[in-house]
Amino acid sequence: MHELAITESIVDAVCEHAAGRRVRSVQVEIGALCAVVPDAMHFCFDLATAGTIADGAALDLDIITARARCKACDREFVLVDMILLCDCGSADVDVITGREMCIKSMKVG
């Protein structure tokens, strides 16, 4: 379960940037290609924040849809799974979105 390692890194970063202030909520964007299970991440967040200044904070996950552009036909399309294949049959694609992982905001106080 890689969600635990990801969540621990997020909690570490948030607690460091909170500079001792209580963390109330954290908003995170995660690309669909990162294969994160939202329920697992919420569970791990509760574990990782226990006993920290983020204990009890809310986690808001925004899953970013995976999109790619085909180099052969120049079509942009949604990736519904990990198979990077355009409808034209080409596997020569550039992933545009879906791999990001970013702490967008946090509320402290």
From TrEMBL:
The keyword Metal-binding applies. InterPro entries: Hydgase_Ni_incorp_HypA/HybF_CS (IPR020538), HypA/HybF (IPR000688). The keyword Zinc applies. Zn(2+) binds at C70, C73, C86, C88. Ni(2+) binds at H2. It comes from the Bacteria. PROSITE patterns: HYPA. GO terms for biological process: protein maturation. GO terms for molecular function: nickel cation binding; zinc ion binding. Keywords: Metal-binding, Nickel, Zinc. Belongs to the HypA/HybF family. Involved in the maturation of [NiFe] hydrogenases. Required for nickel insertion into the metal center of the hydrogenase. This is Hydrogenase maturation factor HypA.
